[in-house]
């Protein structure tokens, strides 16, 4: 219901729980609020001293709409949904309209598969999570591949194999596709995987220790060594990931404010394991206290997400009892919000506050512009979330000579120069950029599959659809999935600023304006890859051209080279010498003289 003259028509508002919306003359929603008593709450805006923020709101109000609910808890949930959908200017706004990823285990298959999953949990499979990001899921799945080689390949790939793939060769899969593992042994790996993801690592360690003793007694020492390494890895993971000796699900939510900005840090604890954290920077109107920010955050964040039984918060939120009641009603069990905790849990909250403070100060620093470009890129490519890690490849050569491929890495903070890598291309036709790119991708992603480097969210290639097809082929060979591919091609007239983006799967190019922040970031990454490749190529070419021809001749050591150059007057004298002249030098046989003569003259630049 709407009231066109709010000051003169307050009597029409009932004294019931509900949600009110303040609108300006154009009908734009300025503010959404909830109330246990709508009549009293709305009247208070026109009858008492207000802070500067609320004064600014009321001065613009031309209309008020309200919706009556059964309970104040219902009003809280409706308020959070309206704020997320309407994005009112004077509310605390949380930009988090994404679902969170899970690890999915297809338990109904004969040989179950582990997979990244985002969406509704249904279909009878097992789901573990939620994880704070795709990055956290991939990191856990890479870890599981090392511990228990349960397959992660697509079903279509699995059903059409006639020989084991690279994953089997690097010991990241037990080869069920071609019968290299029994159903019983594979089921054991699946069982251990489930127990690990449920936080029952001690049970897994105990079972592995018993098995290690059994195989040791039967003198199967190689198998015992494998089990020993699994146990050691599990112990290290326990030290790193477990925040409590007891299992349990809870979230840590801490809010800090500084410099007119707010930062909220959320840690996800599932089955006693720290699955990682996620950082939010909600938009906060001037003058809003931390307690109000965290209350608004909690209501919006958990409006469409699974709510754990406990949420540790810092500071205490406004309307804490109301939030607990609404969350408990929605989840069907009691949900507790706790700010005053002791001992270990107090240290967890301090950890969350510390991370929030660091993230906020970083945001306030020089990364603000970069973050804006990263967000623009996420929107342009329709990504679910900001990419954690981006890679870009380029190939540089001169007429096919001494080709070098580069890989540069960017994360949410900018370039990670310590992660850059170059690849000297060998064994391909000179000038074949597709083959050079294919070789670089195979070499890079083989090592990623082996766990030496993290897998990126986003992969840029300097080139158009042809290069993109080469990359897709390389990744298919390695059974790599979950990486968004984008080709960066020059425009029709090859002028800077007219580049086109070719996301994999699109039949047409994505053309962004030359002044687009997203395009600026893409070109920054592409240009960095080009610069790094060119430098590597020039160094390799210079090294090859300054290397003496004599160093490449078998049987011609340093002393013989020195004697040749001294007695024949340097390289120019050697170039003019005949085979007989070379053979007269002490230690040089006639056969070696012929090799020297042939190698030297074939390499002369004027021949």
Question: What descriptive keywords fit this protein?
Answer:
43% helix, 20 helices, seven-stranded mixed β-sheet, five-stranded mixed β-sheet, alpha+beta
Overview of the molecule:
This protein is of the alpha+beta class. It contains 20 helices and 19 strands. It has helices at residues 38-44, 52-60, 72-86, 134-147, 155-159, 166-169, 183-197, 201-217, 221-241, 290-301, 320-331, 343-364, 368-380, 433-449, 465-477, 517-546, 558-568, 570-576, 579-583, 590-602, and strands at residues 2-3, 18-23, 29-35, 63-68, 102-105, 114-117, 126-128, 250-258, 261-270, 273-280, 310-314, 336-338, 389-398, 401-411, 414-415, 421-424, 458-462, 484-489, 500-503. Helix 8 (201-217) runs antiparallel to helix 9. It is globular, with a radius of gyration of 32 Å. 33% of the residues are buried.
> Which range does the strand content fall in?
15-25%
What's the pLDDT, averaged over the residues? 84
Residue ranges: pLDDT <50 for 5 or more in a row?
603-607
Beta strands, count: 19
Number of helices: 20
* Helix-strand category: alpha+beta
| Overall geometric form | globular
- Percent helix: 40-55%
Distance between the termini: 92 Å
What's the Cα radius of gyration?
Answer: 32 Å
**Largest sheet, strands/sense/barrel:** 7 strands, mixed
């Amino acid at each position: 219901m709407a009231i066109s003259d709010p000051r003169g028509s307050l009597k029409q508002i009932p004294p019931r729980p509900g949600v009110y919306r303040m609108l300006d003359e154009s009908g734009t929603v300025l503010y959404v609020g909830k109330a246990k008593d709508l009549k009293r709450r709305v009247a208070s805006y026109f009858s008492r001293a207000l802070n500067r923020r609320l004064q600014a709101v009321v001065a613009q109000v031309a209309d008020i709409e309200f919706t009556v609910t059964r309970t104040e808890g219902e009003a809280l949930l409706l308020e959070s949904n309206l704020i997320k959908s309407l994005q009112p200017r004077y509310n605390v706004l949380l930009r988090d309209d994404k679902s969170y990823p899970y690890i999915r285990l297809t338990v109904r298959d004969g040989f179950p598969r582990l997979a990244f999953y985002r969406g509704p949990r249904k279909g009878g499979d097992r789901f573990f999570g939620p994880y704070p990001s795709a990055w956290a899921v991939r990191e856990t799945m890479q870890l599981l591949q090392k511990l228990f080689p349960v397959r992660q390949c697509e079903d279509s790939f699995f059903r059409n194999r006639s020989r084991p793939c690279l994953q089997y060769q690097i010991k990241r899969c037990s080869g069920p596709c071609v019968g290299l593992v029994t159903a019983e042994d594979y089921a054991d790996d699946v069982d251990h995987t489930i127990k690990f993801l449920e936080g029952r690592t001690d049970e897994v360690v105990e079972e592995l220790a018993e098995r290690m003793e059994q195989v040791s007694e039967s003198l199967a020492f190689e198998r015992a060594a494998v089990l020993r390494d699994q146990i050691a890895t599990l112990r290290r993971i326990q030290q790193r990931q477990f925040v409590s000796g007891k299992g349990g699900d809870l979230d840590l939510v801490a809010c800090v404010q500084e410099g007119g900005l707010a930062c909220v840090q959320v840690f996800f604890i599932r089955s006693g394991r720290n699955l990682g954290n996620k950082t939010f920077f909600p938009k906060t109107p001037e003058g809003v206290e931390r307690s109000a920010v965290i209350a608004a955050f909690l209501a919006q964040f958990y409006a469409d997400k699974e709510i754990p039984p406990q949420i540790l918060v810092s500071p205490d939120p406004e309307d804490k009892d109301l939030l607990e009641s609404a969350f408990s009603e929605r989840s069907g069990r009691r949900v507790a919000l706790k700010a005053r905790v002791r001992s270990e849990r107090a240290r967890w909250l301090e950890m969350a506050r510390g991370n929030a403070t660091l993230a906020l100060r970083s945001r306030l620093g020089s990364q603000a512009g970069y973050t804006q470009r990263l967000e623009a890129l996420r929107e342009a490519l329709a990504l679910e979330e900001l990419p954690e890690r981006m890679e870009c490849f380029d190939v540089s050569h001169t007429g096919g000579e001494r080709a070098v491929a580069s890989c540069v890495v960017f994360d949410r903070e900018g370039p990670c120069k310590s992660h850059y890598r170059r690849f000297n291309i060998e064994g391909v036709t000179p000038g074949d950029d597709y083959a050079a790119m294919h070789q670089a991708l195979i070499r890079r992603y083989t090592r990623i599959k082996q766990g030496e480097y993290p897998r990126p969210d986003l992969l840029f290639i300097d080139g158009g659809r042809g290069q993109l097809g080469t990359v897709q082929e390389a990744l298919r060979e390695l059974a790599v999935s979950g990486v968004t591919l984008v080709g960066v091609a020059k425009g029709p007239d090859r002028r800077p600023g007219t580049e086109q983006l070719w996301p994999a799967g699109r039949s047409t190019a994505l053309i962004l304006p030359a002044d687009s922040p997203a395009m600026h970031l893409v070109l920054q990454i592409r240009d960095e890859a080009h610069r790094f490749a060119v430098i590597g190529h020039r160094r390799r070419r210079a090294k090859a051209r300054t290397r003496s021809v004599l160093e490449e001749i078998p049987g011609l050591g340093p002393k013989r080279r020195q004697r040749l150059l001294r007695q024949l007057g340097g390289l120019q004298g050697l170039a003019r010498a005949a085979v007989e002249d070379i053979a007269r030098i002490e230690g040089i046989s006639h056969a070696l003289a012929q090799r020297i003569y042939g190698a030297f003259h074939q390499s002369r630049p004027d021949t």
